[in-house]
Amino acid sequence: MKLNIALLAGDGIGPEVIDQAVKVSDAVASKFGHELTWKPALTGAAAIDAVGEPYPDETHEICKSSDAVLFGAIGHPKFDNDPSAKVRPEQGLLKMRKALGLFANVRPTFTFPSLLDKSPLKKERIEGTDLVFLRELTGGIYFGEKGRREEGETAYDNCVYTREEVQRLAKKGFELAMTRGKKLCCVDKANVLETSRLWRETVQAMEKDYPEVEVSYEFVDAVAMRLVQWPNSYDVLITENLFGDILTDEASVISGSMGLMPSASLGSDIGLFEPIHGSYPQAAGKNIANPMATVLSAAMMFENFGLHAEGKAIREVVNKALNEGMVTEDLADGGKSYGTSEVGDWLASNI
Amino acid sequence: MKLNIALLAGDGIGPEVIDQAVKVSDAVASKFGHELTWKPALTGAAAIDAVGEPYPDETHEICKSSDAVLFGAIGHPKFDNDPSAKVRPEQGLLKMRKALGLFANVRPTFTFPSLLDKSPLKKERIEGTDLVFLRELTGGIYFGEKGRREEGETAYDNCVYTREEVQRLAKKGFELAMTRGKKLCCVDKANVLETSRLWRETVQAMEKDYPEVEVSYEFVDAVAMRLVQWPNSYDVLITENLFGDILTDEASVISGSMGLMPSASLGSDIGLFEPIHGSYPQAAGKNIANPMATVLSAAMMFENFGLHAEGKAIREVVNKALNEGMVTEDLADGGKSYGTSEVGDWLASNI
Ligand SMILES: CC(C)[C@H](C(=O)O)[C@@H](O)C(=O)O
Ligand SMILES: CC(C)[C@H](C(=O)O)[C@@H](O)C(=O)O
Question: What's residue A48's pLDDT?
């Protein structure tokens, strides 16, 4: 395959981890006979500094004309704690999601046997956890009308969902469940919110099309509990944008492997792949960041093109690195550790 | 003191656990020379069955004319998974919160040394955890305009906050922090929501009035993570209604003592005290429910009247019961356990 991939390195450790994912992807491409063309583009604080906005039109054009986007991380401390700043990196993220139609954020949480000890949870609680969240990413309270009235004394945010938005997300959820454990949990707050009642009735109406999938409906507060208690009882979970924001982050820490968790954001067209960790500015430029989450995001990218052997090759080499101690200091337990680029080189040469 | 206390036992295990809290409160009252008058009233599914609505006017009158409300639990399986049911127990809860002006839900999470092993978290993660959430309870998306348009195909929920609503909740938060570790965390999503920006700017403006309190601002998704990673790094957290719903439930399971966690809902006037566990219908009528959370809720009630020695007497007798194994089966680890009413009797006679 010939693939054009937009490369949005972003801020903080973004550029360093992206570099490693490029190396590994190139190694996979040459092994399997694909041709990858990388198209770097600006985003985040880096883009604000360069051209005054976090998701410039030029970046959007590059993304639109590519087959996928590989994304690092965005965010810079100078924009934190300043909710009134006119331009913020996060706005670029939201604009990009909307502009590229990335309505489904796929966030797996799984465990690596060699890393179970790193989980804040007891081993017997976390063992065997392998769940995936599908978070709706372009609707809900993130994108509803918001503002102030009464001279700024009253603020409002509107949460809106259409049946169609729920259907297209739920469809991906049912389909994903069919390829896995055939369990789907619809997470909502239908005892309070009208949007949640729309979610629930829409998913209920789709059940008949997937008779093999066992569907459950749970309130968001109950899921926040069960994720800590019995994370391994879940398979696929679908939920709206804000609940997904909170719960996917909660889920990401339970595995103890947050630095290794990849994600994908999919639409009807192009897909975006990124590590779930942030821009981690304190570590930027030090060659200490763990590149594995970004490398595994590249695996999701290949798999999304239907290139499963390629994805598997990446997953296997990451496992091998973990088993052989070819890791950055966050995973070294005080033992020998390697730099970001050394880990990347090792992964690429072991493909 | 002479105190009139409305007694809303509610559904499921509510009546059983409430009975024990009454016994223990009466024992405390007779020891310290107070006079308690209990005023039973209907609520929840029990009220729907009896008079067709979950929070009848008569119940409201009894609550209004009392000095406090002691509450069991509400909810019944026959109303679950039926988001379209016309009358639901939860509506009574929301109506009651609003009608009684209970704008601040106080949700402590603390640990009992003897129960640390029950936590899903590793001991070193949970040890020393002692945090309190103040959840705004009568505003936000729970009470904003909600409905459907486009013939039911589009649903919306509006989240609204006024500066005053934020101020009165934050004031309680600052004051509580002053009596404890002097740390206050404002939980919001100010990088996305306008209501969160109002929260943040309002709390920021109040900082100068409490120079001793160290205030931090964290995004809700980050808090969902840190609660699992380092729960003992928090002291007092304040947040809006929906975030509070999710995070307080998440926090409640980390201690491993969910069956023991009390709560209070306060306004400018009357206070309501209730265990955080639900109505647990499977256990109803079996004399197996753990009454300690309700008993500790009564302790919070006494403390809210300024009766600190009384509250302390209750906390101490609960600790004693835990240390001596006078516990219900959920805490017995397969060893000897006692019935709900036996535990209540023991607590009352050991006051
Ligand atoms: C940065 C922020 C706007 C974003 C979100 O809330 O969606 C982030 O938390 C995420 O989950 O990708
Ligand atoms: C039952 C429900 C309406 C309620 C809420 O969401 O407030 C409950 O979850 C709670 O936290 O008290």
Answer: 92
